[in-house]
Amino acid sequence: MELKVSTGISGFDRTIDSLRLGDNVVWQVDYIENYRDMVIPFVNQAIADNRKVVYVRFGDHPPLLEQSSDVVTYEVDANMGFEGFATEVHRLIENEGTKTFYVFDSLTDLLSSWYSDLMIGNFFRVCCPYLYELHTIAYFAIHRNVHTYSTIARIRETTQVLLDLYVLEDKHYVHPLKVWQRYSPTMFFPHLIEDHHVKSITASSEASELFSNINRVEEKMDYWHVLFARAKEDLDKDRQTQEKTKRLLMSLLMGGNSRMFELCDQYFTLHDILQIASREVGTGFIGGKSVGMLLARKILKEAENDRFRPYLEAHDSFYIGSDIFYTFIVQNGWWKLRVKQKTKEGYYKYAKELREKILTGTFPANIKEQFVQLLEYFGQSPIIVRSSSLLEDNFGNAFAGKYESVFCVNQGTPEERYQAFEDAIRTVYASTMNEEALEYRMNRGLFDKDEQMAILVQRVSGDHYGDHFFPHIAGVGNSSNLYVWDQNVDMDAGMIRLVFGLGTRAVDRTVDDYARIVTLDQPTRKPLMHMDDAKKFSQHGVDALSIRNNQFSSIKADDAIAHVWDVERDLFASLDTETMFRLKELGYKNMPTPYIFDFHKLLKHSSFPNVMRDMLAEIATVYEYPVDVEFTANFQNKDEFKLNLVQCRPLQTKGLGQSVQVPDLTPSESCFIQTAGHFMGGNIRLPVDYVVIIDINEYLYLSDQDKHGVARQIGQISRYLKEENLLLVGPGRWGTSTPSLGVPVHFTEIQHADAIFEVASEKKGFSPELSYGSHFFQDIVESDIFYGAVFDGHEEVRYDPSYITNEPNLLLQWDEKYHEWKHVIHVAQVQSMELVADIVRQKLVCR
């Protein structure tokens, strides 16, 4: 038979047929003192019955219980945020075990830290079932006429016992609203409690007199929205009041004190913050990517003489608050799994399971309605759903490419468009459990940080061209040029990585394709590699959105530009006369006119490069730090265009470093690598302990499957040697997704290396490409990895693999199963080897 437990008031025990182990008891009160009147007899009875009693203290109100050896008190800081608070409470409940009796402070007091009814409901939803599971009894309180109906409904749905407590003329009345699995003919009447005696108020005259004196009001807005509504009233008040209100709202939308917070405080007004809040779906933080984009745009708008305003495309983004992410996790019943995954033991163990669940989750009805309204706003305009986590795009941690962004072409019926939008949000949420994101957070000591995922929803910049949608150009811009291959390059002028069409080809290492690298001091300067064949080393494909097929697609560059109708095409590409004559000779007709995407006219005759240079410099000056931006641009003519700054973050860089002396070698002096230019990472003098080199000839003839196998082994070796100074040398591009172009390692597999070199072999089809501005580039810079390209056979370049391969191959010392790769991978421990580079003189020697 189920064990009954006393409330400490015997008459009330009879009224509700006592409490049961597993009960969560919620008291709805007007004043905290009224709740305390019910807590004291419950605790005294529990102590008399030799129960373990725990008081969870977090409220702003006076303590409910005096310090006592009979009661264990835990003080939990609600200011750590929902996840930290809920996780700490979960773990203390886990440690206290079964059949413990709990008293919690008033849940309403959490509003002073979270400002969100939604999150109070979420906390109760994750806490209550766990207490029930451990056969505890827990007392909670909420203040009447403060919370939304939906919050009360979620609490009523989850708790076992819900009680209204009224105090009128010093008399206590309890009105049970829910008593799970118990019933009596008088249970749900109001009851007058006098000491241990309870009188049921069944007469209509008494009941009506009682309730006529009780203040019941209409539906309350979420406290979050109440706060922002009140803030609008401060727009007409003095500057000091406005600034105080602004900083409070900023802390709710953008996080606590940080360098980014200070910059936002410097540039945003209260009106700006209220405008941002008006475009938020749900509540909580809008995330680092949104903040970075908004701040950069504001900096440019406020520049002297309105210098940049004519060039800025208007934006009408929306922000899905981080609280929606938590609500999604909680309401689908995955909170306990998330808590397990947040531990060191479960960090990788439970990530895959959680990721798979997130991809199948459902959203609450009220959130769905807000999503519908957002989509109705955009109509059938293509949109992009982008991650905007709390830590993303901030000083020190860029998270470049670690989380997903999903294009929604946004075609079809409203139902089809809505389903695609929901799927995109789930995909972004699930990407928090991707391997690279997990590794990134772990390696930067962020695995236990509160990484809240908000979402930035942006209208895709561009127009319809034939059956496709894309902007004229897009790319990545850096205010500081970290890859100086010519002594005349001005590092401070910056650099951009430019593509025609969507900017995905500017941030990813594309297959057999090349973005245009532009040094902004001399935009028409030839690119960094030896490119005798301009056609070969240009852009061949264009990323676009297929309107007909309702999906992201890649099309041939000539086909894409053939449909451009609103601006002269030669702004972006030059006629490929050689190919045109060849096609004519061969008798081809009705073929698209062939072009070479060199952007020559754009870079030489338009104001675009100067505007980009000045924009980057303006933002970097305010940041007092180099910056990395993503942009699109659409043109009417060479000097009339609109730039859309879609992202901005601090560019991680260590600068030049101390000057070093690079030895001048005679031809008779041996060395491993010597090159003039084509390296990045500042001045360096690096002692090398181990070198891992991949034999180009052996690698060339491997199958794609075996090349992937080589990449996995490189990852293992890199982890084994992570405490050593490690140099990796391989053919073509490290980190490519195409094995024929290089070594398809994931960045997490080479992140422990101190330096990497990409070796060119024109005969064998391997060509280095730094992919300046790509996510791979950002990872190299953030991880402080020195990069070099070796153009073997070119003037001022020496490369002698035998310098390393003459040393014993240590590959098999870790595992005999590596035997099949011993002719491909050579691992050597070297003595007294140094990598020395002077970025100013553009000289490098490794010997």
From TrEMBL:
Keywords: Kinase, Pyruvate, Transferase. Residues 286-664 form the Pyruvate phosphate dikinase AMP/ATP-binding domain. The keyword Transferase applies. GO terms for molecular function: ATP binding; kinase activity. Pfam families: PPDK_N. It comes from the Bacteria. This is Pyruvate phosphate dikinase PEP/pyruvate-binding protein. It comes from Gracilibacillus halophilus YIM-C55.5.
